[in-house]
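Protocol step 6 of 9: fold each sequence in the batch and record its structure tokens directly after the sequence line. For illustration, a two-sequence batch is reproduced in full.

Sequence one:
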Amino acid sequence: YVRSAQLLLDNGADPKIRDNDGWSAYGLAAISGFHDTVDLLIKHGIDPNNANDAGQTVLMYAAKNGDIKTIETLLDHGADPNIVDKYKCSPLVYAAREGNADAVTLFIKRGVKIDYEDQFNWTALTWATKKNHLAVAKILIGNGANIDRKDSDGTPILHYAIANKSKEMTQLFIDAKVNLKAKDRYGLTALVYALKAKNSEIVDLIKNAGGSY
């Protein structure tokens, strides 16, 4: 594909022309994982932060797909790892909610803002917890993600682990010294929330960790 792209460019093709969804050839090449073509187009002046009509950059799609090579190529050419789409979702959020642990690790190594909030005040850790991606949650917490943050609804992240009936995720937060006294907008602590969910195993975990009503 890179030779075809080079031929077209040599004959005057405009790499900045977009399709009906707002994608340029650069965007389509990146989404498809054509790393050499991405590299070529960037060298021909394409903005690495080129986005579609929804404000979604190709870095976000690479993060969503867990395409490490494309992520590295884009970052090496100056793509912004903290850029957000119209829903305020960053590339890290895209990686976290799909459970792409290697991509999450890469973004953290590149200095991404780990606690950036989307339009619902959900962070990458919120998404990992809601989607029950334990490996991703471990990475985020191990790198300092805020475990006590509440979303725009007033819900502590731990409550999502309890809602998923995930003993492992709940234990992860307990081991990280989450605030078990934190309440949601209805005044429910983690223990009360677990009791209402009728999950005796998680109730026991929280009680043994010092959780209260």
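Sequence two, same batch, same settings:
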Amino acid sequence: MVVIDLDKEQVIGKVESVDTATVLIHVTDPNLLSSVQVNHLVIIRSSKVGQYLIGMVDKIVRKYSQSEDDDNILSVDVVKVTLIGTFMEKLGIEENVFRRTLQSVAEIDADCFTMSPNTMSKFMNVISKSSALMNQTLIIGKYTLND
């Protein structure tokens, strides 16, 4: 089962800055900013094939600046994300594995995607199945992030 298919996810921007587990995303299209919300999960493309960095949105900022040469006011949209782990399509003989560790760091100019409701359900299912295998059932309830 394919959990993350980046062709079906919406690109919101590119990684602009990386500081250990904190990543700043430059939102390329101001209209996309409305699709991002604090505490939502995002997917960052990893340099390793079959691995995706999963992060949680901490802050959404729109900065305004005016150049000295002209009177144009420019806006820059930035999303601050805290990385929470790595999703791997395959790890040894296991498939669809999520680890709370970062297997790689985000790279500058890596694409960042929103996590659609369908992907969110599949991702949460992976987490709950791994908890069940460890005899620690994860009870989540309703996913309010998608409301």
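Proceed to step 7 once all outputs are recorded. Observation for sequence two: The first helix runs from residue 117 to 133.
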